[in-house]
Model the fold of this input.
Amino acid sequence: MTKAYLLPDDDPSSDGGRCYVTNLPPHAEAAYFYGGSFAEAYAAHGGPPTPAHVRRVVLANTRDHAALVAAGDPRPSDVPRIISTCWQSIDGLAKKLYTEGTIGQPDVDTALGLPDAERDPEARAHALAAIRAGSVPGTFEVISRDSAWKL
Done:
């Protein structure tokens, strides 16, 4: 992702306000569309939603539903766990997106507490692997050959 932005509710092309992402890799589309609906259900439910609640949200978000059907992967299995693990970071990013209208990759990196990719790619890769494995951002430390980095 390079940038996410909101169209205002009164923009005729927004259908009542939408979040758009630029430069999303094609292999990540199913996770992105399912993740958006799952996160919406998570926020409305006040925590992990029921499968029925997620289904209602996916069906209500017709663009997300169509994209999931086209991707052929309607429920990427790792999305609910990653959203639950990273909820505090996601919530902070959503607040920034709604107040500023746009967020970029540096905002995501900051929210997750990731080290700079150019300065310490090894530490960044380990941090992302720890998050994918279920560690909550802010609860672990990565030490690489080049630097000690703590989240």
